[in-house]
Amino acid sequence: MLQALSIAATGMQAQETRIQVIANNLANASTPGFKVSRTRFQDLLYVTTRQAGTESSQVSYVPTGESIGLGTRTAAVDQIFTEGELQQTGNPLDVAIEGQGFFQVSMPDGSISYTRDGSFRIDQNGRLVTLDGYPLIPGINVPQGARNITIGPDGTVSALVNNATVPTQLGQLQVINFLNPAGLQPIGQNLYAQSQAAGPPQTGIAGENGFGSIQQGFLEMSNASVVQELVDLIEAQRAYEASSKAVQVADQMQSTANGLVQ
Q: Which of 221, 220, 123 is nearest to 175 (CA)?
């Protein structure tokens, strides 16, 4: 019975982790560029009291074994990088990547982060930055008084400068891709850090060679489905309740067994 208690407890812990992940998905249902997470589980070791195929006589063998599992554990929390819905904002500095890829962001400590959130703004120095003031890589500077800023599908940023009637090219947004985006490490602020699991960053031109194209005036919204998350939440809650019921039953059985020896 003691083993049943610990086995059921692992199920409760696993579903508690799943509920935390679902809660985070729901909390970010309106966060631009957010990617949902999914909890993956694995069963634990097994106690084998009889091996399948054990010889039961000189001419016969046991067709099935006797193994009792010791519960479950959280194996991974995957990031699902399916594309979210593009929402038109009308803001010329809002951009979305339609397809695969990330924007590069320079962090205050000199490191590089990556994001799908194209909510860009112009800071006091004329640099194109994220909402937290982190500049893009490569840097793009918008001159004072620039008008009619346009960002092409290939990431080319242009504007009318001073009294010019012909747009001046200010720079080009680069798109970065990874062999395994799910291996990126989420660090908050809609940013990801590179990890060995993600592979080396691959730089390309938007709209070419499998890299996503740039859509000006749009934002990619979260790929979280509130309906699906609520269904998953109910499922996790029921699984948690079932494991807690197993704990209660095992405890009652142990109490009954203890009463027999008194």
A: 220
Model pTM score: 0.85
Q: Which long-range contacts (CB under 8 A, 24 or more apart) does 155-159 make?
A: 155/205, 155/206, 155/214, 157/128
The residue ranges of every structural domain in the chain are: 2-80+228-260, 86-220
Nearest residue to 95 via CA among 190, 212, 191, 214: 214
Give the span between the Cα atoms of 184 and 79, in whole angstroms: 8
Which pLDDT band, with edges at 50, 70 and 90, does 261 fall under?
Answer: low
Give CA 200 to chain center in angstroms: 19
As a whole number of angstroms, the distance between CA 158 and CA 197 comes to 36
How distant, in Å, are the alpha carbons of 5, 7, 147, 249 from that of 255? 13, 18, 79, 10
Beta strand 86-88 with 46-50 is: unpaired
